[in-house]
Every structure is written in C-alpha cells, then in structure tokens.
Amino acid sequence: MDKSGNERTTEHKKRIKQLRQIIIAIVIVMLLLPTVLSIVALSRIRSLDDRLNEITLLLSDMNANITMSTHESEEPKQRTASGPTPLTERSLSGYEGEVSAEDGQYEGVKKVYLTFDDGPSLYTDEILDILAEYDVKATFFVNGHEGMEAEYLRISLEGHSLGMHSYSHEYSKVYSDLDGFADDLHQIRELIKDITGEECSLYRFPGGSSNAVHRMPMAECIDYLDAKRIRYFDWNVSGGDALTEPHSATQIVNDVCAQVKNINSDTVVVLLHDAPGKRSTVEALPLIIEKLMSMDDVILLPITDETEEVQHVRP
Ligand SMILES: [Zn+2]
Fold first, then answer.
1. Is 273 labeled as catalytic in the residue annotation?
2. DSSP letter assigned to residue 91
3. Active-site residue, selected from the candidate residues 117, 118, 255, 274
4. Residue 206, preceding bond cis, omega within 30 degrees?
C-alpha cells in the first residue's frame, strides 16, 4: 500500500471512531434522559402536592364557618349516659320541677347546655349581660385573643364554664401534627390559667371532632386529650350561626327551639358563636332563653366535669 492509501485508511478509521463515540454518546443520553426527566417530574409533583395541601388547609381556615356548618348538618354520634350529672344550685335555670341537688336525679328532664365558640369578642359582654339578666349559666369555648383579659375573667367570675377551643383556631396549625396540636393546646390552657387561675379541662375541636381538614389522625388528638384528662364536647343542636351568611335572629331562635324540642336525648349541647359578625346570635339569645325556660322539661346548665359528653367521633 502506498503512502496516500495508508493516510486514507487512517482517516477512515478515525472517522469510524468518531462516529462510534457519537453513537455511544447519543445512546447514553437517550438512556439517561428519561431517568433525569422522571426524577425532575417526581420532585415537581411532590412539591406541587405539598403546595396543594397547604392551599387546602389555608382554604379550610378561610372557610372555617362553611366547613363547620357542613358538619353541623351531619347526624352526630352520642355516647351513652355514664350516670347522672350532679346538679348544683347555681346551675339551675328555668326548671320548676322537683330536683334534688344531693342525688342529682332528674329523670325526664332535658339538660340543655348553651355553648359559645370562638370568643371572647366584642359581643361577649353583651352575651354575659343577657345571661345574667336571666340568671342562666352557659359554657364558652374560647380561643386566644389578645387584649380580652377582662372578658375571660368575667366569664369565669360570673360562674360560667370556660372551655378551650384551641389558641389559634387555624386548622393548618392545630391539625398539622401532634406537636402542633399539643403546642396550641398548651398555649390556650396557659392563657386561661394565667388570667383566671383555672386549670381548664374542657375542649372543643375547631370544626368539631368530625372535621374533614385534619392532616393527622383525630384519634391521636383524642388520645392526647385523654392523657391530659381533658374531655371534649361537640354538639347535637346547632344555631346555624356559623354559616358565612348567618341565619337571622328569628331563624336561630326557631331552629334551636325546634331542635331542642324534637331531639331524642336528655343531654342537649347547643352550638352558638360569640364572634365578630355574629350579631344575630346576640339578638336571638334572650328569646332562645325565654322559650327554652318556658318548656317545663328543660333546664339550662353550664358544662362541668361531670356532664355527659356529646361527641361526634370516639375512636
Ligand atoms: Zn370555632
């Protein structure tokens, strides 16, 4: 072979080598590309999923009232009676029949517990004035509101029951995980203790125990409350004042009284709200009390440590 023939052969081999390298590079890229794209897509999906959860929880907070009203319409499960509830002299309201304060026997009597969630608010004093006027004791499931020390104290001093309704009432905080739930609970318990000296042992879950927005199992929250000897209460009668468009005062009065009259239970927990925007609740309250007190099988009581629970969820 002459010199130019050798050069052509070398050039040819070189080109084949380059071509082979290019083909290998393309094959490697084609093999790696789907893997890389899959990893990128997966991480993107995961971050979108997290973001979606956050947005869902945020929307839940913003639409707390709507969510709550949805649950109010569900038929709550009730625990069976665990025994008679001792009746104290101060808690008797409206009932004219024979009641023994010693043995707490009052068969055939509906024990009605008016409860006010989400306060204290600008309406708390007015609600307390109305309750004082009728000598009725109620239960306030409160949140942490700055600058309302006088209202927390007044609720306690006037003989009403104070219950916790979380400090923040933000679902994304309360129901994020057990640590979040415990921190929030500790915060509201300490606030009440600092102001009133009371070690609070009553709780109402934001949205009720049957809420659909929790990220953690509700059983964990309930077990935690059990361990702390804190009892939680839902409701079996609703005033309908949690809706974004709250019912009128007349509607609230009629709804509450009709439900109390028709309910097949002698423990009746009525859900009402003490919150900005719930003016109709305040307007409805005198008539609710008057109508309930006029029913001869009804007594109005504050929830105490002995009150039989009304609970939507009990694992
Ligand atoms: Zn609430």
1. yes
2. G
3. 117
4. no
**Mean pLDDT value across the chain:** 83
**pLDDT of 22-76, one tens digit each?**
888 888 788 888 777 777 777 676 666 655 555 555 555 455 444 444 343 333 3
Q: CB–CB of 295/285 below 8 Å? A: no
Every domain of the chain and the residues it spans: 64-300
**Domain 64-300 falls under CATH 2.60.120.10:** no
Tell me: pLDDT of 105 over 60. Answer: no
Ligand 1 center from residue 242 Cα (angstroms): 8
Indicate which residue of 145, 160, 165, 273 is catalytic: 273
pLDDT of 299 reads 97
Count of alpha carbons within 13 Å of 133, Cβ hemisphere only?
A: 11
Contact 95, 294 (CB under 8 A): no
Matching residue, tokens 């390298």: 21
